[in-house]
Amino acid sequence: MFTKCTYIVILVLSILIISTGCEYDSPQEVWNPDQSAIPAPKIASVVPADMAVAGIDEIQILGENFPTNPDSVIVWFDTSRVPVASISATQLVVNRPAIVGDVTIKVVVPAALEIAKFSPYSIEEVSSVLGDLSSQRNVYSIAVDKSENIYVADRRAIKIMSPDGTTLDDYASPRINTFTQILAGPEGYIYFFEDDKTISRIDPASKDTEDFVKLAKNVSYGDFDADGNLYAGGGDGLYVVNTDLANRLVAYSKEYEILSVRVYDNAVYILAENDNEPKVGIWKNQINDATGTLGDNELVLDWAASEYADYAPTSITFTDNGDMIIGMGDHPNYPIIVYKDGALKPLYQNPDLLAPTCTQLVWGNAKYLYVNRGSNLEVVRLKMATNGAPYYGRE
Hints:
- The protein is mainly beta.
- It has one helix and 33 strands.
- It has one helix at about 5-20, and strands at about 40-45, 50, 60-65, 75, 80, 85, 90-95, 100-110, 115-125, 125-130, 140-145, 150-155, 155-160, 170, 180-185, 190-195, 195-200, 210-220, 220-225, 230-235, 240, 245-250, 255-265, 265-275, 280-285, 300, 315-320, 325-330, 335-340, 345, 360-365, 370, 380-385.
- The chain has a five-stranded mixed sheet, with no helix packed on it. Strands 1-3-7-6 form a four-stranded antiparallel sheet, with no helix packed on it.
- The chain starts with a helix and ends in a 12-residue tail after the last strand.
């Protein structure tokens, strides 16, 4: 008979026999020893050099051993991953990230054994909110004078903000419910429009309001030319007011609802809605003489046929090299776009760089572009890469 100990010995021997007879499946190898690593990427330089100044969106990373498939490379600015806009073996183009300060640029190619690094590289801040306008009911319009003071029009009042935004003081109290535009003009006067036949202005010394001129029809927006003529328009055409206050209709008809007026390079540009085709667009008229006689209407941009046709343009202005800057009031990501060489593109591709809603654009005296965000009660100052085109009224 088998004893209890015999059973135990047989059980242990059976386990040993079974375990030694089984084949153990090892984990699958992660690294393929037969595959060679590809050459590591290298960064030689970055354009712009040293710093991505405000106003510049594209950053070029120059080097070697970059893959030509954008899905095979990852670009980091510190901890911010940046999408690759275009790629070649020697160049990566990325759009500006929403970070500020000194960063390390890293190019990661997963199939390579080394990471390319470049540092330090600086990212300049692109915008700042000026002052505290939370006590205002609205910001209907803004203007900027020769000293870079910012004028803010609320209901029945205009305030003046210091260039750095630290002070906001009462300036004048016109009895106006809704300003359509305020405008810095000759000799320090602030002109204002209210969708009325009368254009008014504020005396810089007394701060009193005075009527400047009364036209045949209501006007809402305007701009000065190099000869001191004021062009003003609304829903009944575009008028010119000469320095002797003589005035006349010079272009357009009641089919156009003018939304913005800007003088650039001896021409008057308007942003307008139209009863005919195109329904929304930007037109220009050449200035033919010193009295403001204008040439024919020329369509510059058929907005209704553009990729932004579903959104409302609100304001136009220009850089000193002729790029048109267009504000939009209702685009969820891009409040400002640029029209250059016949194409529209956002000022910045990264939607985190600029807050939505732009009701008005006004250049300062150099590289500052001011954005009125209207009922959001903010004036935002953008630092741009170039100067703005001249505002002749404040020169």
